[in-house]
Amino acid sequence: MPTPTTSTCLPSSPNTTDLLPPAPPTPESLAYSLTLPAGPRTPAIVRATIRTVLLAHDLGDMADPAVQVASELSACACRFTPAPEVYVCLRYREEALRVVLYDAHPRHTNPRLAAACDARRRSALRLPACVVRACGGDWGFGDARQPGGGTRTWAVLPREGTRAYLAAGCVDG
After folding, report:
1. Cβ 169 vs Cβ 64: under 8 Å
2. 25, 34, 147, 149: which sits with the fewest CB atoms below 10 Å from its CB?
3. Which secondary structure element, helix H or strand E, spans residue 56, and what is its range?
C-alpha cells in the first residue's frame, strides 16, 4: 500500500506593489479614448465624462471651458459623420488638455465641395473656436490619418489660459 504523502503549497512571497493601493490619478496620467454613438445624446455623455475625468485628475479648474469646447466638437462630429459612431480622445500633456474627435465624414475630392463643407464645419465650430482662442489655445480640423479616413477635429486648451478665461467671467462656474 502506498504511503500517503503530504504536500504543502505555499503561496509565493507577495509582491509589495500588489499590496499597495494604486496611485491616484494625476494630471499627467490623463489619457482616455472613447467610442460613442453618433447621436443626439453624445454631447451630454461627453460633457459628463469630461467633467468627471478632469475632477478625478485634479484638473477641475479646467472643467467649464473644456466641457463647453468638447460638447460642441462632439455635436459637430455627430452632425457630420455618416457612421453610427464617433471617437473621442482626451490627453493632458505639457500643461494643456487636448480634445480630439474623429468622425467618418470623408474629405471631398472636388475642391468646391471641400471648401463648402469646410465652411459649414467652421461655422458649426464658431463657439468652441472663440473659447479656445480666449484660452490662448489652438484648434482645427482636417483629414484623419487613421485607416478609414474621415475628419479629425481637435482643440488644445492650456491650463493657465482656462484659468484666465474663468477669471474673466467668461463662463458661469
Report:
1. no
2. 147
3. helix 42-56
